[in-house]
Amino acid sequence: MSAFFYLPKKAKFENQDDDEQVILLLRRHPITNLPWILLVISLALAPTLLNFFPELSILPGRFQLVTVVLWYLFTTAVFIQGALTWFFNVNIITNRRIVDVDFYTLIYREISDARLDNIQEITYKVGGLLGTFFHFGNVEIQTAGALPNFNFENVPNPAQVTNILQDLQRNKGNI
Amino acid sequence: MIFELASIWLLVKVFYLVAFFVYVVFAAVTVKQTYLMTKTLEIGLESLVRTLSWAHFIFAVAVLVLAFVLL
């Protein structure tokens, strides 16, 4: 469940070439999940803290029970979406290219890639209290011509990510 | 008066069942989504993620049936 995988053994992605090797697999730093985790904890504790919603007492007993079940289902939905979005939204660096995999909603995904030799400039930014304390930040990658630029958001060790990318560029994909 | 009260609770029951049905649809979309995600990215946890999504879907259907019986 890490967010920084260097030379992952089992990582493969769609459209990966046979002789292409994944060098780095990145996710957002786990601490960036804090907002939705706190939301899930609040939602889960709410029925207990609010004494099982006294307002619901106007409902018959079976409706009260079903309301609480519905509430926990909603909580589960928030948890599932938060966890899946974090786990599968990844940035991949291979010995040939960079790949950005984004799942925006339940059914919408965007996968973009750029070859290493199309990368023109790499900059990283670390800011904010959490970013400085937990060592995560953004790596901005400018590509040549009309190709889209890439932004690896809130990834751990952005300086190391930049170094690895620069080394790969210099050594033509060799580590 | 009694008839009106009964129809209100019937309306509430329908509302609840629709809400549970929407959740079953969400669970089904989640199963589809996990298949799409695990096809896009393989990191060795594919079968676990897919199994959990199916378990979640079955749970959602079970809760819908339970609500139908209870209400």
Automatic annotation (TrEMBL), chain B:
Transmembrane segments: 6-31, 52-70
Xref: InterPro entries: DUF5657
Superkingdom, natural source: Bacteria
Keywords: Membrane, Transmembrane, Transmembrane helix
Protein name: Uncharacterized protein
